[in-house]
Amino acid sequence: MNFPDLSVDLGRGLILPNPVGLASGTAGYGFELRQLIDLDRLGALFTKGTTLHPREGNPPPRVAEVRGGMLNAIGLHNPGVDHVASTYAPEFSRWSIPVVVNVAGGSVEDYLECLDRLERAEGFAGYELNISCPNIANGLDFGRDPAAAGRLVAAARARTGRHLMVKLSPNVTDIAAVARAVEEAGADSVSAVNTYVGMKIHRGIRAPVLPGRGTGGLSGPVIKPLALAAVAQVRAAVRIPVVGVGGIMDADDALEYLIAGADAIQVGTATFVNPAAALEVLDGLLTAGERAGVSRLEELHHPTPSSSGDGLALSR
Amino acid sequence: MIRPLSDLGRARDETGEVVAVEALEGGMVEITARLPRLATTARPGEFAQLRAWAGVDPLLRRPFSVAWTAGELCSFVLEAVGAGTRLLVALRPGDPLQALGPLGNGFHLDPVPARAVIVSGGLGCAPFPLLVRELRQGGCADVTVLSGAATASRLYPAERFRRGDDAVRVVEATDDGSQGRRGLVTELVAGACEETAAVYACGPNPMLAALAEALRHLAPPPERAEVSLEAPMGCGFGTCLGCALPAAGGEWFLCCRRGPVMEVSQVDWPGLLALPPAHVA
Asked: What is the CATH number of the domain that holds B18?
């Protein structure tokens, strides 16, 4: 039986050995998970959102569990782009897992300066522009406005020949419009979706659990149906690859994203529960591929008349 | 200075079997499970991320200090305060228990102090049976446990700190005077530290802050003073960045990687007191 080829070419040099990545903000810069799991087996590492200057992050509490998910208001706690470029990137170049640096900013200038400083470094395969962090002031503006998103992406496109992925916010009226705008501006791919704005109320203290505005980014299995719908909408709107993310806990979930039109997926919150979750998703896809006798990933989620379709049933 | 990041290299994800669930008076529960890897690698003050349920509600694991180890067995002391802990205290012998650990920085035992004063408040007892044993086995001749709680039924039983080592002294205090001395356990610290000692503490933040204040006036000063802290925690291994706590000097530190054990001088105590209790989240 042929071992299925799960590689995914996302364009402009970003070829994932398999479709299972680690979502930004759930894997740091890989250093912790490298000590816990065989990170190099995975398809890609999307780093913590990285900003021009180091950020200490928000005051605690920063996380709160809700039914089937969690809220976070980390506030882009990160060491800043210079540290990533000078200290982390040389480490990435020794890893076989492709690393995509997630970049966040408050202005077009912030993003471009981040790219300029990273452009001088080696060791990573591309960028994921975070135009949708719900936890910093103004962080949503680019993600909400198709024209603003397009201008940002066009400016970023002019600065780099590396792969440029744009992470879309679900907290918008028309996600397809934003997706089309960033595609037209030169994005190589989009990832969908970032966290949903949510709130948890503590009845005892009669106030939100999270500080400040009381809102945070909702992630985990609770958002999967919402995120699947967003992925399907985006898939219908653009021709560039779509990376699906939102509440993937196992290979069945991943397969649902592939069926919805994603070319690859990211495992996020599941890693907090189980550091090996993404590896288990990958192994599940491999097993399903072997069972179905497919040779390529596409055959797994686009069954042809000649295939039985049994590959779709990873677990019953 | 802030402590170095904890070593994640020893951490493993292990599924064991519950062998005993003992309900103590007042609501505390001690769960013992066969977790050979954790039992043989955990050091005092380190913790494990536990999960004992299928599905996604609750979603996240729950962090607990390793309270005791014996051969392949590992024990945790906890109380039902939320959805996860309610499921954990309902475990029965034979049930599976998943543990990721050991995690975090534990108590410093190098060099082993000649005298140790342990300050335990309520459920803050959790890391101390193992610490008491390691101190004694390392040659610490004089171990005193100051054990405090609101009322008698909330005191962790003295014998569970000693676990058969009668040389370990346990002095108790309760807020209502129902057992031991009436008052706060921190009021016992000065008397217990008339000679230089290492101080190790765990308990509610107000108790730890009061301890930090008491230690500032202590003569002679403690040989070292460490506290085990808690925070709402997502992952327990440093990637979610959720468990930030305020450090002296104005920065945050991650409870799961820099802590949970911190030197008293490294913590911003007013900042910590301004936070809601960890279980609010």
From this structure: 2.40.30.10
